[in-house]
Design brief:
The complex is a heterodimer. By secondary structure, chain A is of the alpha/beta class. Helices cover 17% and strands 37% of the residues of chain A. Chain A contains seven helices and 22 strands. In chain A, a hairpin with a 2-residue loop joins strand 2 and strand 3. Residues 1-6 of chain A have low confidence and may be disordered. By secondary structure, chain B is α/β, with parallel strands linked by helices. Chain B is built from ten helices and twelve strands. In chain B, helix 6 packs parallel to helix 7 (178-191). The longest helix of chain B has 15 residues, at 95-109. Classes of the chains: A alpha/beta, B alpha/beta. Chain A binds chain B through residues 373-375, 377-386, 388-389, 392-393, 395-397, 399-400, 403, 430, and chain B through 48-52, 71-73, 75-77, 81-82, 84, 87-88, 90-93, 97-99, 101-103, 105-106, 109, 141, 158, 162. The complex binds adenosine-5'-triphosphate and magnesium ion (MG).
Chain lengths: 431, 252
């Protein structure tokens, strides 16, 4: 079906209009919105430090369904032995590679497998496409969304691993992973979402999350995309009263990566953990935007983002905390720290606290710097060489965040990636 | 084994060490005492290679080599160990990992095979007993959240594990309760040997009751103004530093 307006963007041929699907209207609105704004430029305040010029020069074709070689791209695969795994390759859900036996109380699978689940009614209801152009693009382009739905009261012991893989192809391709997560009242779930691949491609994933009353979700998103890839993702979470949502956002890969996490605290006494770990080396750029809406009283949020930047790597951190007039007794802590390992590396950080209630506790702190001279000297005075001492301290800096991931295999795998990366770094010359 | 000659050092153009001469032979224990701010820690840090201090004059020979030419890690690998007055906290690095890296760096330097985690575990277990250290401190981040006394004991534990040739202890006794002081002193005494030199910086004669020194030196305003045997420490305990400071001022 053709779009009733002149396309200004090169993405027009990626739009999909499956007539009769429940999201037909959503798609149309989203596509129209994206056409009206196009790819944001650096004049747009939200994109000030993240230029999409190079990205916009590419023509991305729809990913072609192909056989899967079983690899997870250039990154070391993260294997969680007892996880329920769902694999999506080049935008296509692969039931053949996915775990079959699904525990009671849990619905997982692609749209066509899980159509009858009532959770689908929430699909797309909270994603603010007008604030996130690439979430709009995702909505216009996704092929088949994935559902994870834990019924009220269900404690799902096995972690759920959603693996999105892009294979190398001749033409740069685009994929639009789309996930809906519903954690019912008093239910408990752990989700690992991994993104990896080979070659040049563009991925714009959107994960929409609902944690109902007293539900608990640990959501670990690991971005290990190819160093030629573009990853522009969005997570939208809504928490009801008494719920706990822990987000572990890890960005190690991609040429350019952008991760926007918006969390709406819609009930009292919620707990939110926002842990972020990122690395950018060579020519990589990693941009993390978070927005926490404290809309109700008595909610606690703890945010720690840490990044290491080497070579000509660039980091951007923008953390918005919005405390609404009703949100008395809000307790919000935000820290972001970056280590610059080379003179060319850069970081732009911007905490944004907007507080409209008077009885609140909000703190934020940002540090940017090099390794501490005292620590370096302490290690060296015990015989540890300069390069190794720098590597150990750099590693430890990030490991402090990775330690928050409860899935041990994920944590260990990521620690190994960090260690290998920092061991390669040229030691900073001493003053 | 250590020969310090006319050593001058300053930080940000402030002169701190103003001509130190000191020789420590294998098998000897030397104590350095002196008022706050006289330069004791500076001397210890300069020996370990802290680059915040600039050596403006003089020389230091360690086991026949020019110590001042060596990077801090080389000094440690050659057998120099400094127990810090203020041990540094290293969040995110476990005490065990840190120590193994340190031990292996030294072993590699000596051409010995590195120890894996299991071999290393065996090796340090005995040393832990020696210092009566809570085994949980091994898996915790280096010094992070350790009590003052635990930090000091941990320093001596590191020293015992690394088996250095020259031990420099900067106020290892301060902040220790009486039992811990005894444990630390026992740890140090266990390392006394004919081929090891020990240099102890302390404010208190009490430590020297346990670690009996062969020589005591008094550092005042960047200079050693008096040297003697263990009785000098007793004299200082009684009379304080005033008389030496006055003497030093008269001479200057
Ligand atoms: N990094 C530095 N920058 C500026 N001044 C310094 C620095 N390090 C030491 N000093 C100064 O040098 C002098 C000697 O300090 P040092 O720490 O060596 O004394 P100390 O004899 O160990 O004292 P204490 O008994 O209190 O431990 C002091 O006046 C101190 O303030
Ligand atoms: Mg001192």
């Amino acid at each position: 079906m053709a779009l009733a307006l002149d396309s200004r963007t090169p993405f027009q041929k990626l739009y999909r209009f499956d007539a009769g699907a429940p999201w037909e209207r959503l798609r149309r609105t989203a596509a129209e919105f994206f056409e009206s704004v196009g790819v944001p430029g650096t004049k747009n305040e939200e994109w000030r430090f993240t230029s999409l010029r190079e990205f916009a020069e590419h023509e991305f074709a729809p990913a072609q369904p192909r056989d899967w070689d079983g690899r997870f791209g250039s990154a070391d695969p993260i294997v969680v032995q007892d996880a329920l795994r769902l694999v999506v390759v080049d935008g296509v859900f692969r039931p053949d590679a996915s775990s079959p036996d699904i525990p009671a109380g849990l619905t997982v699978g692609s749209w066509s497998q899980t159509k009858d689940d009532p959770a689908w009614r929430r699909f797309g209801s909270t994603v603010q496409v007008d604030r996130h152009p690439f979430a709009a693009l995702n909505t216009a382009c996704f092929s088949e969304p994935i559902l994870v739905h834990a019924a009220p009261g269900a404690t799902i012991e096995r972690p759920i691993h959603l693996a999105f893989v892009s294979q190398r192809s001749d033409a740069a391709s685009a994929v639009f992973p789309r996930v809906l997560v519903v954690v019912g009242e008093n239910a408990e779930v752990k989700i690992l979402e991994t993104h990896s691949g080979d070659g040049t491609y563009f991925t714009a994933p959107v994960t929409e999350v609902f944690v109902d009353q007293n539900g608990r979700l640990e959501h670990t998103k690991v971005q290990q995309d190819s160093l030629d890839a573009f990853h522009i993702g969005h997570v939208r979470a809504t928490q009801e009263a008494g719920s706990v949502y822990a987000s572990n956002a890890v960005s190690f890969g991609a040429r350019l990566s952008r991760n926007d996490i918006d969390i709406w605290l819609g009930g009292e006494h919620t707990e939110t953990w926002l842990n972020g770990a990122y690395m950018a080396f060579g020519e990589q750029l990693t941009d993390n935007h978070t927005r926490l809406d404290h809309a109700m009283p008595n909610c606690h949020s703890f945010q720690v983002y840490k990044g290491i930047l080497g070579g000509a790597g660039a980091g951007v951190f923008n953390g918005k905390i919005y405390v609404h007039p009703d949100a008395q007794k809000t307790d919000a802590k935000q820290t972001n720290k970056a280590l610059l390992l080379s003179p060319q590396a850069t970081i732009n950080t911007k905490p944004q606290l907007e507080i409209f209630a008077d009885d609140v506790k909000c703190t934020h702190g940002a540090t940017v710097g090099q390794l501490e001279a005292d620590s370096l000297f302490y290690l060296r005075s015990r015989g540890i060489g300069l390069a190794e001492a720098q590597a150990i301290l750099t590693y430890a800096f990030l490991a402090e965040v990775l330690e928050k991931i409860s899935l041990e295999e994920v944590r260990t795998a990521l620690e190994r990636v960090v260690f290998r990366q920092v061991a390669k770094v040229e030691p900073m010359p001493e003053e | 084994m250590l020969k310090i000659s006319n050593l001058h050092a300053s930080v940000e153009d402030k002169k701190i060490l103003k001509g130190i001469d000191l020789q420590v032979n294998a098998g000897e224990v030397h104590a350095i005492m002196g008022p706050n701010g006289s330069g004791k820690s500076t001397l210890a840090q300069v020996l370990a290679g802290r680059d915040a201090y600039e050596v403006t004059e003089g020389s230091v020979e360690f086991l026949g080599q020019d110590l001042l030419e060596m990077a801090p890690e080389e000094r440690a690998r050659e057998g120099l160990f400094l127990a810090f007055q203020y041990p540094v906290e290293i969040p995110g690095v476990s005490n065990a990992y840190f120590l193994r890296s340190a031990v292996n760096a030294v072993r590699k330097h000596r051409g010995e095979p590195e120890l894996d985690a299991i071999q290393f575990g065996k090796y340090i277990r005995e040393k832990m007993k020696l210092l009566d250290l809570d085994p949980s401190l091994l898996n915790r981040s280096v010094n992070e959240g350790f009590s003052g006394g635990e930090k000091k004991r941990n320093e001596i534990f590191h020293m015992a594990v690394m088996e250095p040739k020259l031990c420099v202890l900067d106020e290892t006794d301060s902040g220790l309760d009486i039992d811990a002081l005894k444990i630390v002193a026992d740890g140090v005494n266990a390392l006394r040997s004919p081929d090891r030199g020990i240099l102890v910086v302390t404010h208190y004669q009490r430590l020297l009751n346990y670690i009996v020194p062969d020589f005591v030196h008094v550092l005042v305003d960047g200079r050693i103004v008096k040297s003697g045997d263990k009785n000098l420490a007793l004299e200082l305990e009684e009379k304080g530093y005033g008389w030496l400071e006055a003497e030093a001022a008269a001479r200057a």
